[in-house]
Amino acid sequence: MVSSVKMDETKLVKSWDKKHLLGIRELSKDEIDIILDQARAFKEVLTRPVPKVPTLRGKTIASLFFESSTRTKLSFSLAAKRLSADSISLSSSSSSILKGESLIDTARNIRAMNVDIIIIRHSSSGVPYILSKVVDCSIVNAGDGTHEHPTQALLDIFTIKEHKDNIENLKVSIIGDIAHSRVARSNIWGLTKLGAKVTVCGPATLIPPKIEQMGVKVVYDIDEALEEADVVNVLRIQLERQQEGLFPSLREYTRFFGINKERLRKAKPGLLIMHPGPVNRGVELSQEVADMKKSNNMPYSVILDQVTNGIAVRMSVLYLVSICKSENGR
Ligand code: CP
User: Fold this and answer.
1) Counting CB atoms within 10 angstroms of each CB, which of 5, 142, 150, 233 has the fewest?
2) Which of 148, 117, 144 is nearest to 329 (CA)?
3) Does residue 328 sit within a domain?
4) Among the listed residues 329, 313, 42, the one whose alpha carbon sits nearest the alpha carbon of residue 154
5) How far apart are CA 43 and CA 30, in angstroms?
6) Quick check: is 194 in a domain?
7) For position 2, what pLDDT does the model report?
């Protein structure tokens, strides 16, 4: 490994004992900080003329994406390449799951090929946890149902830290379909562990009951959520929810919760606008807000910065789960 990345390895090996990344809920504040510090070192690697290190040479990583993805899938794939790992991938449409093989058998067969890390995205909550109990390699959750999307939250927090001095007491409003969002859940776990003040905002039908028990404030008025925020993380409206009758129409959603320039008039200077993607332009964010550049203390969008940072954060996660020496690593 190159020197700047190797610097803290001995300390890391002692302090890191997670074999899997299943969710942010399971991480301590210190563990989140370790991931973000390591990601910072890898981000520097990505600026070099040859943006690659031999850190995971000899390791094999399998990506199993049983749900569509652009950002997460390509970002994990690039992260593995930048770490010099060998990587393979499988999707549901081309796997023997179509012939009736179970997911557990699929994972056991992949592990039998001496794969070291399985990255899994699945529409059912809990699948990464189940796999962690039936195969003895590392499991990394790339998004499971409505449960968690831990690397998305880590890259979101990494991006916030690049723009705001301190997460402690920072006011972050998460806006949209909180009930069905694994991104919201992972962000809430991560941000509250780091001391941020999190508000969630959306139509009452898209706010889960008792969400306050996660340590967040609930508001139903978008202007209130925007006015108090240092950061807004705007979620994708899942178009299928309209069929479920959870809101009357996209037009009505946009009228009451869509963020446009007019709505940002009372926002704090330098408000950070985030979105995990994919963006429904003209629905949850207007075209011009989605692309707002940094200028004169105005609100600005860091949506593409989030995507860039995803590679360094995922390099960090792949590296850290691979150094866990404990057989019983959690
Ligand atoms: N943010 C996110 O998970 O995007 P993809 O579905 O494209 O991976």
Assistant:
1) 5
2) 117
3) no
4) 313
5) 20
6) yes
7) 45
For residue 150 and ligand 1, the question of a CB distance below 6 A is answered with no
Say if residue 309's pLDDT is above 90: yes
Residue nearest to atom 1 of ligand 1 (CA): 276
The DSSP bridge partners found for residue 173 are 199, 232
What's the mean pLDDT when you consider all of the chain? 94
What does the alpha-carbon distance between residue 78 and residue 84 come to, in Å, rounded to a whole number?
Answer: 10
Q: Evaluate if pTM is beyond 0.90.
A: yes
Asked whether residue 269 is assigned to any structural domain, the reply reads yes
CA of 278 to the centre of ligand 1 (A): 6
Give how far Cα 155 sits from Cα of 107, 169, 316, Å: 27, 19, 11
Look at residue 11 in the predicted model and tell me its pLDDT.
67
202 CB within 6 A, ligand 1: no
69 alpha carbon – ligand 1 mean position (Å):
5
DSSP 228-268: T-SEEEEPPP-THHHHTTSSS-HHHHHHHH-B-TTGGGGSP
**High-pLDDT (> 70) share of the chain, %:** 94
Say if ligand 1 is within 6 A of residue 106 CB. no
Comparing CA positions, the residue from 204, 154, 197, 198 lying closest to residue 179 is: 204
Say how many Å lie between the first and final Cα of the chain, rounded: 25
Which of 65, 71, 76, 238 to mutate for ligand 1's pocket (most ligand atoms within 8 Å of CB)?
71
Q: What is the DSSP letter of 292?
A: P
> Count of domains in the chain?
2
Q: Which atom of ligand 1 is nearest to the CA of 121?
A: 8
> CATH code at 301?
3.40.50.1370
Of residues 146, 116, 141, 143, the one with CA closest to residue 131? 141
CA 43 vs CA 211, 277, 317: distances in Å: 34, 21, 13
